Amino acid sequence: MVGVVVPMLNAERTIAATLDSICRQTYRKLDIVVVDDGSTDSSVAIVDGKIRQDRRVRMIRQPNAGVAAARNAGAAGTAAAFLAFVDADDLWAPTKIEFQLDALKRGGPRAGLAYCWFASIGQNDQVVSFGPQPLFDGDAMAALCESNWIGNGSSLLVRRSAFDKAGGYDTALRAQGAQGAEDLLICFRIAEHFTFAVVPRYLVGYRARPDSMSHDALQLFRSTRLVLAEYLGKFPQHAAKLDHHLQAARQWYAYRAAAAGRRSDARILITEALRHRPLAATWHFAGVAFGIARGRLQRRLGRPAPLPLYTETIW
Question: What is the predicted pLDDT for the residue at 208?
Answer without folding.
Answer: 73
